[in-house]
Write a structure and sequence with these properties.
Length: 459
Amino acid sequence: MSKRSGLMVLWSALCFFGVPDLLAQWNPPSEVSRESILESSKTILGRPDIPFKDREEIFRIRAVEMDWDMGAMVYEPEDPAQIPIGPDGNKIGVFMLHGGSGDHRETRVVASLLAGKFGFKVVSMTYPGRFYLSDPSRNWPGDTVNPDGTVRTPIWKTDELITPDQYEVMEDQSMMERYGTIILACAREGTVFYDRMAGWPVAFEEAGRDLMRRHFPEGEFSIYIHGRSTGGPFAFMLTQRVSNISGFLGMESSPFGYIYARQINQSWHLPFNCLKIRTWRDVARYEGPEALDREGPDALTRLPMLMERVFEEWQKDTYKPLFKAEYPIHLNGIEALAASAQATARRLNLDAGETDELVRQYKGYTRELSGKGVRPFPPTILGAAHSSRDHSPEIYREVILPMFAAMDPPPKVNFVPFGAGIHEYFKPEPDLPLGIAPAVAQLWYDAIMGGYYQEERVP
């Protein structure tokens, strides 16, 4: 008898004796204290390593009649029999999306923990255009803004580079309190850049579906999906569009765009064809709140030192993509999404009915699906680090959880605050070499194996 067959027989026996009924009683803790995080970190890092392999995957999809070259990383045990079987009898697969400044390399720490300590198979996808296809290192060269005034732009297809004549560099100060001065590369109509900026939302959806279909086939795998920060709205978007996604693994995850816009009291109102170019300001908007949490108001008395830290951090990070097209979905920019759908429809020569359908598709990326025949939104755990700029327990209680509860039907959602950590929850801090990531991974494992995500679905 194979190991997998033995596990299935064991699980069938447990089902006969009613153990799943006991497992279904597992509920997440109301909070995870710093002491518990320290203990979990030592325990998880001390567990025997499961040998695993990782590999980069470059693949091409076809979306809105354009080719898109995408990048991902796949992590899995060297022995496939070590992939654990969940309470539903399927193998456990985790699909991950990174934050707004990076690519799939951001998720390496967490993905390696999940594969190397728990045996999960993990697929981590890079957003369209973020993967540096021009060099095997995948490190973007130079800075985001060049001395000659040109800027860094996405690479959506191998050997298809966006040239400076395709865009105009602009500055916007309409959201100064949050972002400072925003640098934008606004694509000129009629250019490839413009068409790509209009079409990438569909490419994002299709790439995620393609990866999960190939790596986590239905009937063999149950998928648990995670997106940090900007990755959150896109992971939430995919939950009801892939039939074997069983639940959402949250940690510092922005919710659906329409909820996140309420969460931070800010929506995206700039044109869809304007790419945000990140600068040192994007480091400062996290460094400030985190310093305030660590040191209190005294942090401002050391502002020169703090700013030097910001600039140093920026210089260390310039190998990352550091541009962002995803704000219309992240911040509920439905007018921008409608305009991008209409631009795509014009290019494809769609009729009025087809155009309206495409507009509905684009706008639908910012919120849950509802209506007859739609699979319900799956069970979810949301988590927040102690020193998080936008993810305070108060905002979850007052805004986020009530908005999830207002969905039809209301999904199973729980929020777990952590007593340590920052927005990049895998970053080291005193006594925590991998940040709070080990404790987060333990929570996810307990939730999956404890039956939290096993809910009867009624289409």
